[in-house]
Amino acid sequence: MWKQKKFYFIIFFLLAAVFSINRFMSKREIPVLNYHEINNTNHTVLALSTQEFTTQMKYLNDNGYTTITPDQLFNYLQNGVPLPPNPVLITFDDGYEDNYTNAYPILKQYHLQAAIFLISHYIGYNNYLSWQDINKMRDTITFEGHTFNHPYLNKINNDNELQKQLLDSKLDLEKHLGYHIDCLAYPYGAYNQHVISLLKKDGYRAAFTVNLGDDAKRDDMYQLNRIPVFQAYSHTFIRFWLDLHFPYFMRVAANTHLNFPI
């Protein structure tokens, strides 16, 4: 069994090396990391320990990564506006309270920016960010949309309900934040072409999925990839490193049920 796994490892990394050479010789692709909860107590499928998050942020800082905002990413993808060296976008979905109590101090320690996608109806609820928390983080965090109450958008057949999820929540966030909400993160990564058409109509510039991959100029702005960093993926530092550097190969490995002993 180990010989078989060793063979898969060798093939995987040979392919990854070829892919990386081709990637750097062609188009620049940008990683977008996706987190949810950061704590040592909940142990949910969406949680990452504070220690592991610290290790990952330290790696980005020590290896010359520069964090960017969603607008910087979109300006590059759409208009070719130059990015700083080694760009990476850090995102959080849902807006959990521990994003303020745990993740925010770590981000500040390593001088990193991030974006949090807020569920507008959950702001102020137990275990979620309050407006007071949000306002305190605005020196480091950009806030974007994650619908009104986090439904499967592709299962909603009523346009009035979709407007509540997409437009009404967007306007509510804009009222409190005082700036234009440019992008959405799809709850559960679920969407369809009708949802995309409404996003365009409602003034969204882009939307993020949870599909493992990075983003390049050729990509659809309403189907942008991210790199999920969840406990559900049995994350260790080596898994984080592989996903960051070889996201498409890791997606292929996951889709083909090729399990690496990491």
Structure write-up:
The protein is of the alpha/beta class and 262 residues long. Helices cover 42% and strands 16% of the residues. It is built from nine helices and ten strands. Strands 1, 4, 5, 6, 7, 8, 9 and 10 form an eight-stranded parallel beta sheet that branches. A two-stranded parallel sheet has the order 2-3. The model is unreliable at 21-26 (pLDDT under 50).
Observed structural traits:
262 residues, alpha/beta, eight-stranded parallel sheet, two-stranded parallel ribbon, 9 helices, 10 strands, 16% strand, globular
Secondary structure: elements and pairs:
Elements lengths: L1 H24 L6 E4 L1 E2 L8 E2 L1 H13 L3 E2 L2 H10 L7 E8 L3 H12 L4 E5 L12 H6 L4 E5 L13 H19 L5 E3 L7 H9 L4 E7 L11 E5 L8 H9 L1 H9 L7
Helix pairs in contact: 2-4, 8-9
Oligomer: single chain
Global outline? globular
Which band does the percent of strand residues land in? Answer: 15-25%
**Rg measurement, Å:** 18 Å
The helix/strand class is alpha/beta
Low-pLDDT residue spans: 21-26
The profile of the biggest β sheet is: 8 strands, parallel
Tally the helices.
9
Overall pLDDT metric: 89
Could you give the count of β-strands?
10
In whole angstroms, the N-to-C terminal distance is 15 Å
Helicity range: 40-55%
In N-to-C order, the SSE pattern is: HEEEHEHEHEHEHEHEEHH
